[in-house]
Amino acid sequence: xxxxxxxxxxxxxxxxxxxxxxxxxxxxxxxxxxxxxxxxxxxxxxxxxxxxxxxxxxxxxxxxxxxxxxxxxxxxxxxxxxxxxxxxxxxxxxxxxxxxxxxxxxxxxxxxxxxxxxxxxxxxxxxxxxxxxxxxxxxxxxxxxxxxxxxxxxxxxxxxxxxxxxxxxxxxxxxxxxxxxxxxxxxxxxxxxxxxxxxxxxxxxxxxxxxxxxxxxxxxxxxxxxxxxxxxxxxxxxxxxxxxxxxxxxxxxxxxxxxxxxxxxxxxxxxxxxxxxxxxxxxxxxxxxxxxxxxxxxxxxxxxxxxxxxxxxxxxxxxxxxxxxxxxxxxxxxxxxxxxxxxxxxxxxxxxxxxxxxxxxxxxxxxxxxxxxxxxxxxxxxxxxxxxxxxxxxxxxxxxxxxxxxxxxxxxxxxxxxxxxxxxxxxxxxxxxxxxxxxxxxxxxxxxxxxxxxxxx
Amino acid sequence: xxxxxxxxxxxxxxxxxxxxxxxxxxxxxxxxxxxxxxxxxxxxxxxxxxxxxxxxxxxxxxxxxxxxxxxxxxxxxxxxxxxxxxxxxxxxxxxxxxxxxxxxxxxxxxxxxxxxxxxxxxxxxxxxxxxxxxxxxxxxxxxxxxxxxxxxx
Lengths: 457, 153
Description:
The complex is a heterodimer. Chain A is α/β, with parallel strands linked by helices.
């Protein structure tokens, strides 16, 4: 706390101060937060006195000694309050005030006139009409001066604060506006690119759909082509086999003729040759005949009817039994379903499978042949199982080929058409056929009969 | 006891096939081949007695016609068709063909054939056929009842 006595000055009564310490609230304020107080007085001593009085407000006090100086200063600086002496040489206080008020920006700056008590009457009216807000009468009472000035200082600061806040808000608002604009722009850009992406995707989907449709058509066309080629092949096979039959039959007949009438008279060698020719010719005829039957299956229309499979099997078994008396065969015929199929063709399937079973169980003392049904992947499959010589599963993909055999003809006769025929018939019905076996452990042949939804081969 | 003999007309364009049929029939003295023709037109002419064939001394009307299906000029089926309106007396017409197609068999039956046999090279089978032909001719029953028990059914 610094105590100082202001110098005694004429015209100014000073009252002893308790303290002229700087207001602790104002102390430590950064310079830009201080408000400006403009003192305009030609009397230096008065100025000094006022400065001293106002010092403890802690604001920025600027002193000039003429109206002209004041006006010049006011061009650049902002003040919370202007203390204007009325009596000044040159521009007096009123003239200065008038000129100050001319400026738009200074319209509202508080002006406090300082004047002698004795001049009050005349000056006050004029002062107010010039926009003064207050008067301070000399001799100045420090407390009065301080109080009045601090009011305007506070007002100024509050205003400045408000202005700053308003500015802050405006800036924030502008900034927000900019950010919103930016974000909107970004969204628009993103939207546009999204729209383009969607359009592109739709184009691609459309192209894919188009390609798919093209592919589907090609698949249909190709399937039709293949089906037609297949039919052509079968027709060709049939026509070839058929045309081969007649001359072959004639050859056989002549061979037979020779054998019947001339073999006894022939020397042994040509006699043997003739025998061999007869055997091969017979075999050839069987092959052609088998081929013919095979290709006929494709040609025929499938005529489905409800058929009891057990009756067909029992019938075939009865025929086989009567054909081979002397063979010891245990027949196990289980219950079989009734299915929609072509009875002639399915009969042929059983004939072929059962004949095979009978043939390949010949080495067994007691042949066991089972016929039954089982469930495979949710479908009903029929099977023929035997305890015969079986085969090696690694050749299983050859089983159903035309003229394919897995055993030598000398051991087991046959042309290799039987299973090919079974496969064709089963396929025509929309089913499939397969086998499981092991060498010397017998074989089991399974087949399904489709329900007619699959294409017939 | 005189065994009845049956005169046979062979209709086949293949020399070989006609030879084998002749040999097969020879085993049975009941059958006498009186003529052989090679096409459908000739078969019809023979049966109708046209031209040369009007001489029935030389070309007697047969008891049995063995008819191949695959013939030049007129096919076996066309001959059968003609016979539907021109059959005389107790004439038996039997188809002897290389084909055993169900279609051919059915059509032959429709057109009035009395039996249908497939040409077989083996003698045994040929003799079986000859026996069946004999049965067919011996039974003078009307074609209708025979058709039901012939190999055609």
